[in-house]
Structures
1.
Amino acid sequence: MDADKGSVTLRWEQVVVDALDPVALGTWWAEVLGWTIVNDSPGEFEIQSEPGVLPGIIFEPVTAPKTEKNRVHLDFRPTDQTAAADLLEAHGARRVDIGQGDQQWIVYADPEGNEFCLLHH
């Protein structure tokens, strides 16, 4: 961009997740993250860490199930990886192998198969 035209600021507002059941998947993520549901419409289910605090996560309906590895995924850095792993697994997250080999992070899938990583503290 030309300097004389000013600058543009981008603000990260949302992560959008396609879901067969946006309400169920959004509720699952709200529970494991301890986030707040700010919109519980089936057409656009949204959670935020606190109301009005961005970025948030929006779950939108799709008709086809996930069939391949995510092109984008979320990484979470817990204060205690073992306790966080126990929490995720108690909520139904499952460990998955996407070819990561032996690493300090753990790859999980949420109830609809979306991969995310639990980093080492």
2.
Amino acid sequence: MRSVRHSDVVTAARALLAVPAARRGALCGRILREADWADRFTRRLGKPHPLWGNGTLLAAARQYMLAPEPTFDDWAYCSAFEMVLTQLMAHRRCQAL
């Protein structure tokens, strides 16, 4: 997966908000994997993956429905944002092994 920026996390959190809370963890993991796969595809073939984009978390998340971006006054948004960061850190730790 390419370097992660604030907009990547925001977009992934918006995708999580668009699904029921019980499905958010699985969707988050899926988006992270698809960003990884898209990055590998792009580096190998020199073009973006047709579904998952160019290897950024933002591109992988944009294939899903996105909720409007709320403020951090919204508890569900804070939770989704935290979930993206937490799973991203775990994902990076697994890759480092």
